[in-house]
Amino acid sequence: xxxxxxxxxxxxxxxxxxxxxxxxxxxxxxxxxxxxxxxxxxxxxxxxxxxxxxxxxxxxxxxxxxxxxxxxxxxxxxxxxxxxxxxxxxxxxxxxxxxxxxxxxxxxxxxxxxxxxxxxxxxxxxxxxxxxxxxxxxxxxxxxxxxxxxxxxxxxxxxxxxxxxxxxxxxxxxxxxxxxxxxxxxxxxxxxxxxxxxxxxxxxxxxxxxxxxxxxxxxxxxxxxxxxxxxxxxxxxxxxxxxxxxxxxxxxxxxxxxxxxxxxxxxxxxxxxxxxxxxxxxxxxxxxxxxxxxxxxxxxxxxxxxxxxxxxxxxxxxxxxxxxxxxxx
Amino acid sequence: xxxxxxxxxxxxxxxxxxxxxxxxxxxxxxxxxxxxxxxxxxxxxxxxxxxxxxxxxxxxxxxxxxxxxxxxxxxxxxxxxxxxxxxxxxxxxxxxxxxxxxxxxxxxxxxxxxxxxxxxxxxxxxxxxxxxxxxxxxxxxxxxxxxxxxxxxxxxxxxxxxxxxxxxxxxxxxxxxxxxxxxxxxxxxxxxxxxxxxxxxxxxxxxxxxxxxxxxxxxxxxxxxxxxxxxxxxxxxxxxxxxxxxxxxxxxxxxxxxxxxxxxxxxxxxxxxxxxxxxxxxxxxxxxxxxxxxxxxxxxxxxxxxxxxxxxxxxxxxxxxxxxxxxxxxxxxxxxxxxxxxx
Lengths: 329, 343
Fold this sequence. Notes:
The complex is a heterodimer.
Chain A lengths: L1 H4 L3 H4 L4 H4 L6 H11 L1 H24 L1 E4 L4 E4 H5 L26 H37 L1 H15 L3 H12 L6 E3 L2 E3 L1 H12 L3 H15 L2 H8 L4 H9 L4 H24 L11 H4 L12 H28 L4
Antiparallel strand pairs in A: 1-2, 3-4
Helix pairs in contact in A: 4-16, 5-7, 5-16, 7-8, 7-10, 7-11, 7-14, 7-16, 8-11, 9-10, 12-13, 14-16
Chain B lengths: L1 H26 L17 H11 L5 H10 L5 E2 L9 E2 L20 H36 L4 H14 L3 H18 L19 H35 L2 H8 L4 H13 L1 H24 L5 H9 L4 H29 L7
Antiparallel strand pairs in B: 1-2
């Protein structure tokens, strides 16, 4: 409407229809406009972009050094895994700006490659969470009846055990059962996949409940009844009528899910059940760090700072998304 | 009300059964408990087989579950492996209050939990009190001072607070208050344990050892909770009855603390109620890093040795606590807010 009333002369001298026509804004455009106004969320996005660049380009730019045990200059992940025990537990210096760890690996290079793993785990575990949560929520709400009670009893049962306990038990259960795999030119320990899966299967419950509540109210609306009367298949009603309308809560909850997945990884790794060395992750870099509480604080300070920074940035983005999709809240 | 409580408890039964089956299934593959029992000399295969038979680990999984659930004192067992079932089983099952014995220490799990639970509760209850007081104070204050620089600083602080891994916060605090305070010659806080064995378990010692774990637990939770309190305070402060109170000339602090806070703290009651049992668990990391002899640390120690009766005991205890506390929360809530009817 703003374009119609902005110019008072327009009412006196009507312009041709073609000129005053404007494109209506879609809900997602409106959400994006609100999101852009959220300052901290935009800062969060900026920080996340920088962190993503750090974890990707950083490896090409700065991961390089002379590795004494193999008597060669290494670069990339090989440098991050080079353990020069002669250099162990060195404080930050010109060669190792974040210092070295207990077996002489460069912490700076490891935060870069560990960052790739931590971010990967955060994103993919959330993907698992979203797929499982949405599936359970939609099926439960749409089909109702005994399917609903069965799925919801199971969801409630899963919620009665604090997720950290489930994570620890499942990490023990699946631990060491998957071989290493190759992804994007990197050799990843099978434990990475294990962590992704177990974080996913211990965190879908809240999302499932949100989606279920949403679909339950949508299901009763006239347009869904109309679609059903027209003989549209269940799958299609779910995919093109119900899911797109539950998009907003899924987006908001999954953005925060990435943050908690990254934190979950650090907790599991803290107990030594997470990503297995030599593959680095921000979590497993902290694993035995508390043994060096006083003697080598750089060991736990830098990876910890990166975790806090990432999670903080994601939480800001999540907060912005919440405001953008739910302007009343 | 009674009907409601009974129905809720009945509903909880399938929930607990499902979770016990899921957990028991997981326990089958968390590692071989026998292999962690070895002394200096690794046991011979026949010794292992005998151990397995005596601990009932040679039975199929479903049978082990049945024994865990309802005991085996109604069965005759073949303990010496001669094919004759002559010994009556010793177990009474979780339904009759027997959680089995630890495979590692051979103690009854019930006793082990009873030993550790007071320590965990000491930490938890103290932390919970600190959390409630500070969340309310900070939340109310930042709601009154909404969008001022003070509020913005508090908001930023809260975001940093709940973005931190618990153990990293613990490390930072230990580094400052234990390591560096000692280095600077200031009075410093101890980092490990519940008391200094040289001094003994005196009140002062335990309090000194509690400061950092309690602070660690509190900071993270206060960060999250104060946001909820702020949000619900802001909502309540905009309601008509608050404007009426102000118009009547009620003093501002009375409006805030008597009129507004009463209603604003209702959602907070639910939040705290739902979180209390999870708090038992949240302590896992804190107890581990501060060497606090509680239930969480016992869980980790026994996970590493695949001691599943202890793990099952702790997990089912927590699951039961979750169910009971959730029910209590709902009942309390209906007392506090008569608009809510339980049915």
